[in-house]
Amino acid sequence: MTGKLLGFTEEVKDIFEGTHKTSTSLSRAPGPPEAGVKGSTSSFPFWPGGMDEPWADLLKKESLDASLFEEELLDTPPGFKCGMKFERKAQDQVDYIHSQPQKINLSELLAMDDDIDLEDLNEPDEKKEVDLEQTQFKQPDKPSDAEDAFLKLTSLPVLNISETEKKKPVTNYEWAVIDDISRSVENFNEKVPAMAMTYDFTLDPFQQKAVLHLEKKESVFVAAHTSAGKTVIAEYAIALAKKHVARVIYTSPIKALSNQKYRDFKEKFEDVGLITGDVQINPNAFCLIMTTEILRSMLYHGSDVVRELEWVIFDEVHYINDSERGVVWEEVFIMLPDHVNLIMLSATVPNTAEFAEWLGGIKKRKIYVISTLKRPVPLVHYLYTGSVGKSENDLFPIVDPSGKFLTNEYMKACNSKKEKDNKSKSSSGPKGQRYNITLAQEKNVYIGLLGYLQKKDLLPAVCFTLSRKKCNTHAEILSSKDLTTQVEKREINKFFKECISKLKAEDRKLPQVKLMGEQLARGFGVHHSGILPILKEVVEMLFQRSLLKILFATETFAMGVNMPARTVVFDSIRKHDGLNFRDLKPSEYIQMAGRAGRRGKDTVGTVIILCKADVPDSLALNNMMLGKPTKLESQFKLTYSMILNLLKIKTFRVEDVIKRSFGESGNQKQQKIYRELLTEATQKLDSLKKLDCSLCNVDMARYIISLKETRLLKREIMEKKCSQALANKLLVPGRTLVVSTIDHQNVLCTLLSLDKENKMKVLGIAEKNKPSDSKNSSTKPSILPWTKKLFYPSEKQPEIMNVTFSDIEIIGNKVMRIDDSAILKECKRFHAMNSNPGHSTSAAFQELCCLCEANLNSFPSANINLKDINFAPKVHDLERLEKSFESFTCVKCPEFSKHFEEIYTFMQMEEDVKEYSYQLSEQSLSLHPDYESRKAVLKILGYIDENENVQLKGAVAREMSNHELLITELLVKSVFTESPPEEVAALLSCMVFQQKSDDANLELPSHMKEKIKEIREVAMDISAVQAQNSIIDPNFVSQYNFYLVPVVYEWAKGTIFAEIMKKTDIDEGIIVRSIQRLSELLKDVRNGANLVGDTALAKKMEDASHQIKRDIVFAASLYTQ
Questions:
Q1: Is residue 1012 within 8 Å of 1045, Cβ to Cβ?
Q2: How far apart (Å, rounded) are the C-alpha atoms in residues 1095 and 1101?
Q3: What is the rounded CA–CA span in Å between residue 17 and residue 848?
Q4: CATH number for domain 379-422+437-626, candidates 3.40.50.720, 3.30.470.20, 3.40.50.300, 3.40.50.880
Q5: Whose C-alpha in 26, 99, 624, 1083 is 20 to 30 A from the C-alpha of 544?
Q6: Cα–Cα distance for residue pair 353/359, rounded to 1 Å
């Protein structure tokens, strides 16, 4: 860095800048030091990038040409002999000398700005190369003072990144740019002569592309296969931020991943911080690691760290599909200020461009999409049908490295399994598969598999077992197997003892700790949410060092970093998703299978599916292994906390945030189309002449409205009748029907065929030589005037028509004797060759004509009495409406048909204008009804007033990360006033414990049971208010589970962990994670208590937090030591 001036930008002083409590400007005064890195709930967020600022128009109006004030500038600083020289162009000087004083026309002066494209000033044309040297300012010829010496700058090598690729892929996207990574970047080293970070390997093409974009401060979305090297891009952005003396935030979806990344980045960049709910390490570091929830909180609370950000890196972006937490990603994307550049890292997903287009659209910037074409280490997928003994080697490849499904090998696997199962008698599950094999059989399968993996040198392996209980069971049934050498045992035991040495003696004796130590020494590991966090970290670190040979893990392990194995084994491909059992989705399978194959060590990765009971269905396997990964989909939803955070700023509108959600991206794209349609429809409406008819003007509009009501009622009733007739086998070939088409009403037909989707082919009476295209077809009414009379033209011919139940007017009482198949064949020939209809068709048609002539004014219907009593009022309404048509004045008009069409067209145009206006309004937003409902709830409960100003209860609710309404109500109702700290902590655990357990018979003091009852009653009151305002949440009360209350109560009283584990069946890891989350909740409640002025309760929360924050539950992460 030499200080050479390469250019400058002018920053207009924000006329609205103020304090952190009054302004959203980046130029506002800093917040108080006590706000810390997370900000304060009293602070305004910074203005989101891409969102139009409310004062932008005002600034434009007040801006004047700088040349007006050029003569007013002071150019010599105090103490200096001279200052900057503002040289004029030669022509400007001549103009100035010869100019005479004259009047200034301000309107003309302001209009001059209209000719300037501000975007062109800010962004160079992509097709032109920008020479930074040409943009430098000329120095004064004779610097007269030493003070000017700093202006004499030596030339620097300019980063050659302004050249654009000659060939760019053509896309239909405005903001998403798809990069071609099929080949390396030409002259990469010349384009980036001084990299911010160097590597001892050649970057892949997708990494080179990403680096080029980062050097230009462009946002990227990188969707790459597992182990492809996405982390390189994150590291380069961090290095760039360090080089630019800026800050960078790395976000991950889970706390465990944040801890791992902290260790990795700490080794490379040193000045790295970690921010979690309960831990802050080096918060002033230039690189901060945190979960996405923490970043969201920082944005809503106006953290001053946001000003200094150059990059935010989002890892595992596909986590946006998570139904509970996916909304957090969307909120963060929407709320990030304009100066922050984005890096998104994701597994491969099919709609990267669509997502980038949405994100670029809301941020008003290009998003460059970079995707890898293939895995660096290809995978081979196998079915294992073997067991201990002779069948140990029964492994069948079903998908080769090129992605081809091997049907022959699949059949071999099926045959192999059938031979072994001839004598077995097992019950069958879904799709003919059996799942209830014995534990002994399961043990034999794993012993056989283990022998094969050892023999073929396919260890280490991760065995994904999709339940915590099975993970433990599988590790236990292999207790007789030993996979490590003596050297490895010594290394494992030494490392394990070092890791647990900081635990208390009684904690080191926990059954889980002792069992894990024994399993690790034999080369086995277990990894799931029920394992103590410190033990999970031990497992991860030993696995990274290849000291563990077999790891039994649940799905969450697939989200870990740098945990590749040679082999991945699937114990099952079915999982319980909280509702029922189902096959793994392609994205879930790919995420886990992707752990197989270590780059630089393995030529292929091996993926094995165990066929313990039966071979999975081939279709399910094909779809799971080769199907498209799950698309990124919006999980955006409104929360009370979000609404309250946005309502505190009057310049923010919740509707603007909803508009920018990923779920609304499709609707927002249509806005331009709807505006054009609205303009066109309005113009057409204005051009229509008002009808001047004394008869039709009386009630034609009411006639058309009644007609529409009749059609809707008749359609609903007829569909019900048809369903009933179908059940009674009345809809058979030959049945007479009266149907209405877009051209004619009451056409007599006979049924020819009916398919499974209730689509019918009928033979009907059609108009002969009818024009195929009418000029007025687009404006022809979709309904016709009401009449009972059958359609019977003077010139007629038979015609095959396609109709549905909703087209039927009458199910006739007669069944004609016809040859339906012959008629269908003859009519095809008749239309194709324009010949005379065949014998069967002619006979049926003649009979139809005779029936039509005999029943022209009203066709008799079959007697179908609706069995559903709910339809009786509808049948009555239909009869009433049909009788009313004859009493309308308009039907007496001699030009009724013409006037009907004119007035119908006018009314339809009016409806179109209303519809387009609605689509352009905020009422059309999918979440608008939910927003209105939630506002109503907040008003009723007193969180906001009628003018939507946030009240004290609303301010308290903003302090809460979750369950804001229930906690606030409990605070203002003083539910915890009389309870000691340990009881408060225990009772609040109902909001952090997520495991489904029966909490009906808990061993607790009677007064605590009364408190539980009181909390449930408050929850029911809130639920009732929500239900009154159309927010139906059947799980609102039941989500608060008190099963953990006795555990937390004992822990807060000081009982040791080992004693507590003797009294509960909850896994150790679940307990630890819940209490850690409880600690964060207690801080929120403390802040809320301070807001309402209850200092005693705030002190109680501090005491409760202190009482639970001890020993193994809050043991420091190994990654941070």
A1: yes
A2: 10
A3: 82
A4: 3.40.50.300
A5: 624
A6: 10
Q: 286: part of which helix (H) or strand (E)? A: none
Task: Give the C-alpha distances (Å, rounded to integers) separating 564 from 102, 467, 551.
Answer: 78, 21, 11
pLDDT, one tens digit per residue, over 899-947 is 988 888 899 899 999 999 999 988 989 999 999 999 999 999 999 999 9
Among 714, 738, 906, 912, which Cα is nearest to 812's?
738
Q: Specify the amino acid at residue 916.
A: Y
SS3 of 472-525: HHHHHHCCCCCCCCHHHHHHHHHHHHHHHCCCCHHHHCCHHHHHHHHHHHCCEE
Measured from the Cβ of residue 397, the count of other Cβ atoms closer than 10 Å reads 16
Q: How far apart are CA 500 and CA 787, in angstroms?
A: 88
Rounded to the nearest integer, the mean pLDDT of the chain is: 84
- pLDDT (average), residues 48-67: 60
Task: Give 739's strand partners.
Answer: 747, 808
Report long-range pairs for 16-19 (Cβ below 8 Å, ≥24 apart): 16/55
**Residue holding tokens 């396919």?**
458
Helix or strand holding residue 327 (H, E): helix 326-335
Amino acid identity at 708: K
pLDDT in tens, 1050-1073: 999 999 999 999 999 999 999 999
Residues contacting residue 1065 through CB under 8 Å, at least 6 positions apart: none
Q: Please, are residues 778 and 901 in contact by the beta-carbon 8 Å criterion?
A: no
Give ranges for CATH 2.30.30.1160 in the chain: 725-770+782-863
- Sequence ranges of the chain with CATH classification 3.40.50.300: 176-371, 379-422+437-626
pLDDT of amino acid 489: 96
Rounded Cα gap, residues 233 and 179, in angstroms: 15
The domain 951-1113 is classified under which CATH number: 1.10.3380.30, 3.40.50.300, 1.10.3520.10, 3.40.720.10? 1.10.3380.30
Query: Do 361 and 665 touch, CB atoms closer than 8 A?
Result: yes
Contact 42, 23 (CB under 8 A): no
Contacts 24+ apart (CB under 8 A), 475-481: 475/519, 475/524, 475/525, 475/526, 475/552, 477/439, 477/442, 477/443, 477/446, 478/443, 478/446, 478/447, 478/450, 478/524, 478/550, 479/519, 479/522, 481/447, 481/450, 481/522, 481/524
Torsion, Cα 1023 1027 1029 1031, to 10 degrees, reads 80
Question: Of the candidates 333, 315, 311, 327, which has an alpha carbon nearest to the alpha carbon of residue 253?
Answer: 315
Beta bridge partners of 280: 275
pTM of the model: 0.80
Count the neighbouring beta carbons within 10 Å of the beta carbon of residue 1119: 18
Distance CA 873, CA 890 (A): 28
Domain ranges in the chain with CATH number 1.10.3380.30: 951-1113
Token pair, residue 582, equals 């189902």
CATH superfamily membership of 176-371: P-loop containing nucleotide triphosphate hydrolases (3.40.50.300)
Compute the C-alpha angle 373/377/380, nearest 5°.
105
Q: Which two tokens stand for residue 238?
A: 């961090």
* Topology at the third CATH level for domain 725-770+782-863: SH3 type barrels. (2.30.30)
Structure-token match 């989200």, residue found? 559
Task: Give dist(CA 637, CA 325) in Å, integer.
Answer: 10
